Batch of 3 targets.
Target 1
Amino acid sequence: MTLRSVFRRWMDHYFSDEEAVILLVVLVLGFTAVILFGRMLAPFLTALVVAFLLQGPVSWMERRRMPRLLAVFVVFLAFIGVLLALAFILMPLIWNQLVGLVQEAPRMFASGQQLLDDLQERYPNLVTPDQMQNWIDVAGREVTQLGQRALTLSLASLGNVLTLIVYLILVPILVFFMLKDRDRLVGFTISLLPQRRELMTRIWEEMDDQIANYVRGKFIEIIIVGTVAFFTFAYFGLPYTALLAVVVGLSVLVPYIGAAVTTLPVAAVAGFHFGLTNEFLYVLVAYGVLQALDGNVLSPILFSEAVNIHPVSIILAILFFGGIWGFWGVFFAIPLATLLKALVYAWPRGIKQRHLRESAETHTES
C-alpha cells in the first residue's frame, strides 16, 4: 500500500461527507478570526463569556415563570453592581497593595540575602558561597526587571485607563443585548449555517452543557478559593491579603501548575513578614490544606459532569491555547480540549452512523 493510497483512504474516511468539509471550514475560519482579530474583538468575546455565564440565572428565573425581560433586567442589574464593586472597591485595594509590594521588594530582597547568609553560616556544606552568589544575582535581576515593568506600566497607564473605560462601557452594553435578544442572535447565527448540519448540531449539543457548567463552575471556584484565602491570610495577619487572595483565586484557572506557582509569592511574603518561625509554617500548612480541599473536594463537586481528560492533555491544552490567546486561552483550555476530543470521537463515527441510517432508510423504502 503506497503513501498516496493511505492518504486517500484517510481523506475519504474523514472528508468524504459534505457536512464534514463544511464543519472543518467553519472551525478553521473561527479559529483564524480569533487569532488574527482577537485583540479587536476582545470586548465582544468578553461580553460573550459574561452573557454565557449570566444565561444560567436568567433561565432559572424563567423556569420560575418570571418574564424573560424582567429576568434579564434583574440579572443585568446584579452584574452591574458586582462590576461597580470590583471597579471602585476591590481594584483600588489590589492596586495599592501591588504598589506597596513593589516598594517593599528591595527590603524583601535584602531580607532574603540575609537569610541566605544565615543558611551559609549554619550549613556551609549544604550551601556553598558560589551557589549563594548565584542565587543573589538571579534575585537581583528579577527585582530589577520587576522595577522596569512597574515603570513601563506607569508610563503606559493612560492607555490602560482608556482601555479599561472602553471595557466598562462596551462590555455591559453588549452583555445586555446578548441576554435580551438571545433568541434573535442565535437564530441569525444558525441561519448563516448550511441546512445540513446534523454533525455540528450533535457536537454542539454535547458541548453546550459542559461548557456552561465549566464556565460557571470555574467562576464559583475562583470566588470560593479567593475568599477563603483572603480570610485565611487575614487571620494570620499576613500583609497584602487582597492581592494574594486574588492571585490564589486565579491560580485555579491553571490546573496542577497554578497551585505550585502561587506557592512562591505566598511563601515569599510569609517568609518576609514572619521569618523562619512557626507562623511561617502555619501559613504554608493552611495554604496547602486550602489547595488540597480545592483539588479533592471542591473541584470534583463543581465539575462532576465534566468530560474526563488526561492531565497530560490538559497541560498541553493550557500551553497551546494559552500561548495563542493568553488569559482566555488558559481559561478555556479545558473546554477547547473537550471540544477537540468530541470532534475526534464524533466526526468519523457520526458520519458513518448517518450513512448507515440513510442506507437502512433507502433499503426500507425499496
Target 2
Amino acid sequence: MSEVTNDRDGGRTPRRWNPLARAARCGEALHAWRTRRHGHAPPAHDTGGAPPSPEPAAVESVLWRMRTTVRDEPGALAALCTALAERRVDILSLQTHPLGAHTVDEFLLRVPAGTDLTAAVAAGGGTDTWAERADAHDLVDGPTRMLGLAARTATDAAELPLVLRQLLGRCTIRSQPAAAFGAGPAAVPPEGVLEDTVIRLRDPEGGVLTVERPYLPFTPTEFARARALVELDARLGPRMPGGRDVLALPEGGHVSVRRADTADLDAARAMHERCSAETLRRRYHGPVGDAIRYLNHLLSPRFGRTLAAQTDSGDIVALGHLLWDGDETEVALIVEDAWQRRGIGAELLSRLVGMAVEAGCAHVYAVTQASNTAMVAAMRGLGLPLDYQVEEGTLVITARLAPAPSARTPEAGERAARH
C-alpha cells in the first residue's frame, strides 16, 4: 500500500506507506495533547483552565400589582411592555379592560428592587397608574381565583364581605336598608349600579350593599364579578357551616360550641334577660335596655361571624362575635353570669381570633372597660402582641395577628366550617 502526494508541478507521486513513521507521528500528537491537557499553562481560550467569566450579581425583586390606562390603538400595549422590559420588569400576568377610547390594563409584575415603576410606565404611555405591593397569593390565575371565591361564598353566608374585599382590594363594604335611599327595594335596579368608585347591589338580605373604593375606579369586569358573587349568595339563601365541638369545663360539665346566626335570636334574647345589669353594661357600654336591640345586627352573617356556647338543654350561655369593621376587625364577648370564670369566654375568643387569621385580618381589637379584668385576661391569654389605649375609662385592646402559614386551603376551610 502506498500514499499519494501532490508535487509542485501538479503531478502525483507515489510514496511508500511507512507504518512506523505514522505511529511515531500519532505518538507525538498524543503526547502534545496530554501536555496541553495537563500542563501548567494552558492557552487562554481553553475553557477548562480559563478563569470563570464574571456574572452579574443577583438583583432582589419584588412583586407589584399595577393598573394603568393606555389608548385603545394598535401598538399601545406593546410600547408599554417594551418600556417595562427595558427595565428588566417581568410581566407575570395581564388582564385588559376596554373602555371606549382607552384600555385599563392590570399587571402582576416582578420588579427589580429600586426600579422607578411609575416612570417606566409613563415612558411606555401609561397614565392614571396605580400600584401596590403583592405577594405569592396573587400568582393564582384569574379563573382559579374566582372559583375559590365562589366556593367560599357558597359554604358560608358570612364570607360574602370577605370575598368581595379579596376580589376588589382595599374597599369599604356596607349593608344599608333600602329606605336610606328613599325608594325602597327599587332604589337599586336588579342589575345593580356602577358609579366610578362606587358599586351598589341589592343585598340578598334586603336593602342595599354598597362597595366604595375612592382611590381607584371600578372596571366593568370587576362590577360583573362582584354582581355574580352577590347573585350566588342570594340564590343559595341563608346558610351556615354545621357541626359543633364539645368543650369540657375545668370544674366539670361541658358545653357545645357552634356557629350562630339570626335563627338563634330568641335564644340569645333569653340569655340576655338572664344576665345581670352589670354584665350587660360591661358588654355594651350603654343603657342596659338597648342591649337586646343590637342582637339582630350582631347575629347577621352579613356583618361578621358569631360563636355560641350552648348547654345540652339548648340554652345559649355565651356569645362571641367577630365583626367586620372596614379595615379593622372587632371581637366581643358576653357570658351569662352563672357561667363566668369557667374558661368559656377565653375559648370563644381564641376561636374567633383563629377565624380572623384565616380571613387574612392583620389586627383584632376589643372595646371594654378598664375594670373588665376578665376581658383583659382573655386578650392577654392569646399570647399575641397587644396595644392598649385608655380614654375616659374605655379600654381598647388591639392584638396584632400572625399571618396564616399558607394560603387558604380546603383543609383550612373545613376547620373554619367546624368552628
Target 3
Amino acid sequence: MSFFAILCALLIEQVRPLGPHNPVYGGVLAWTRWTSRNFDAGKPHHGWIAWGLAVFVPTLLALGVHWLLVLTLGLPFAVLWSIAVLYMTLGFRQFSHHFTDIRDALDEGDEPLARSLLAHWQGVDAAELPRSEIVRHVIEHSVIAAHRHVFGVLAWFSVLAAIGLGPAGAVFYRMSEFVARYWAHKNGAAVQPSSVAVQDAAERAWHAVDWLPARITALGFAVVGSFEEAIDCWRNDARRFPNENDGVILAATSGAVNVRLGGGSLSPIPVTDPLPRAQAGESPTAGRRLDSGSTPGREPEPGHLRSVVGLVWRSVVMWMVLLALLTLARLLG
C-alpha cells in the first residue's frame, strides 16, 4: 500500500498544495515551542528530553492512529490516513514556487527581481550576487529542499511502512528536520532563545536521521544523471560543504549535471519574526555558508536550472518505479 499512498499524496499535492499558513504547521510550531519552553533547562539531558518529546510524540500519534484504523475500520482507512500524513509532509509545491519565480525572473533578464526573490526565500543579502551565483544558490537550495521535502520523506516512510509502522517514518523525518532548524534559528531570538544543549541534541539527531536518506538521494541523482561524474564528485568534493549530509547531495548533483557548486557565501538578513518561514517549511539559515571551495564543473547558468528539474523528476520516477515493482512482487509472492 505504500506505493499507492505515495502516488496519491503526490498527485493531490500537485493539484492542491498545502498552504504555508495552515493549522498543521501552526500546531507543529506551537508544540515545538512548548517543548523547548518547558524542558529546555540548559543541561545536555534536558536537550535530549525536549528533542525526544518534540519528535516522538507526533510520531507515536501518527502510528497510533494508523493501528487504530487498521484494527477498527480496516486497511483501506489506514491507507487514507497514510495519504493524509504524506500530503502534509511530502511534496514539491511546498518550495517549488520560489524556484519557479526566480527561474522566470532570470529567463526574462530581470536579475534585480531574482536577487530580491532569493533574498526573501532564504533570508540573505543577495544584492551583489552576479547572475551565475544567483543560479548556483538557487540550485543548491532547491536540491536540498527537494531532498528534505520529497526523497528523505520517501525513504523513511517506505522503510517503516514496510515493517508495519504506517506513516510514522514520514512524521519522524520531518519533525527531526523541523526542530533542528527551528531551534537553530531560535538561538538568535531576543526572548527565550534556545540553549546550546537543545540545539546540539537536535543537530546530532538530525545528522543521524538524515545520514542514510542523503546518500539514497545522492545515489538516485547519480543513476539518473551522469553516473561516473556524480560518484567521482561525491567521493572527492562532498567535504567542500560544511554539512556532511548536504555535501553528499550537492556534490552528486554537481557531477550529475556538470555544474559548479559551493565556494560562495551569503550574509544573513536579520529576521525578527521566524514564524512565516518556519511555517512554510523553509530554512531561515540555509544561505549561511562559509567559503570552502567549489566543485568542478561548468559555470552555473539558467540552463542548469532546467537540468536540475529534470534530474529531480527522473529520480522521483525511478524510485516510484522501484516501489511499484517491489509492491507487485509482494502481491504476487
